[in-house]
Amino acid sequence: MAALATSWLLAGASVARAQVTAEPASAVVFPDPNKFAHGLYTEGEIGAVAFFGKAGGVVSPGFAIGAHVGYDIFRWLALQAHFLGSTHQIAEGNVLAGQLLQTYQGTVEGKLTLRFGQTSIFGEGGVGLARLSTNALYALMVEPRYRVGFTAGGGAGADYHSLSRHFSVGIRGDYLLLTNLSGSQELMATTYLRYTF
Amino acid sequence: MFDPVSRLRGFGLSSPLALAALASLGLGCQDLNTPIYFPSPVTPALAVSGAADAMGNPPRAENGLTLQFRNPTKDEQTELDTQKNTLGFDVPWIQRDHVHLEMTYQVTNTGSTPGMWSIGVDGANEYTKYDENIVAMVLGQGNNDAPQYIPLIPVTPQILGPGQTISGTVREDDFNEAELDLYGIGQWMSPFNAVLINNSQVNPIGIMSFVPPNAVIPALIEIDVNFTADTMMTCNYAIRVRDDDDQLLHNTTDTLFSPTPTLFVPPATM
Fold first, then answer.
1. Range of the domain at B85
2. A104 touches chain B (CB under 8 A)
3. If you measure CA to CA, which chain B residue comes closest to A197?
4. Residue in chain B nearest A81 by alpha carbon
5. What is the pTM assigned to this prediction?
6. Which of A65-74, A140-149, B184-193 shows the lowest per-residue confidence on average (mean pLDDT)?
7. What span, in angstroms and rounded, lies between the C-alpha atoms of A29 and A163?
8. pLDDT in tens, B13-30
9. Which of A26, A70, A96, B10 is most deeply packed, by most CB within 10 A?
């Protein structure tokens, strides 16, 4: 009885297989990433920047706003310029507690993207310049005398396409080294809106 | 039905570009209103043991810093001379309207008992130097009373527990008042105790009938900090300067502005 049931199941399965292979080859793919715009793009972002290392002890995390301008050389590779400004408060525990400090950063980055339909993940990294608005960290003996220095680092993020061809949104996190702050690094986490022309 | 994608299409490029524009604006405006900080010459700047002196007065510690400014350029000097001729009296190079000062401080009780501390800020403009210790010494001549210290800017005394730290700020408007007072005392014969005790915005006694309303008030170029406490404490401070016209000396081709302010000595009979 059991053998009869098994043969019936197998027979049914082969019929089903035949039905699948008989479907038309030109099935609609949705969403189709090839229909997403690519090429020149801009991104506006907001988020937060936090310092680590020596500067982390005296500078509180702060609000950040920035922008990317880039170009998709391929769908998986892009070059971009990144500008980010953030504002911070000097933390408690020192003589400048409560004073404000801004950072301004500009980097040139490469970006690799791996797409899964409507969603993609990416990794990015680059080098650039960072500038502090005041000499507050010098006064606290955290940084050398110069307020401008090199920065380098990278990060990763995820992008979700809106299916409107030009727009997508996403989140990213980057970790950068700062040469104008002795032994200090920063983590920036932002959410962005992207427009691809 | 609300369709966010359509709405975003309606915005066109505005959203990302607006954020980009804001970021660019931030980069472009970064040098506006940028303060420069000067830490106290040593750390800790001021430390007292808490042990009273032979007269039973709490110990005092004092130090300060002199801000370094450049000399005016030829054009700037011409402008000052023109303004001076128009007004009929001298016009300072370092002016209160262009150089804005603020002091931040941090007091720590390093002892094992609660104690009271106080800070008095003195200083000098390019004409006059005020030192509360000199004033107290002159006022104390001929009597055995405890010294009477009258700083340019008093910070309200407070009690601090052992191991505790407190931070505070002497704000720009406090310095504005002190700069007006010192200018009146040094240049216009204002009665020093009247102008120092009274806030000129509340009671302009000693200012109103002495200092011309069109006078150009000089800024402090030297800041001296007096610290006193009746137990073991330390005080650190820093001076914040907003230098509107880039008058601080940082270009090696500029020369140092080096006025010689006259020490204010009150009349001994006051």
1. 35-263
2. yes
3. B13
4. B20
5. 0.80
6. A140-149
7. 13
8. 454 555 455 445 554 444
9. A96
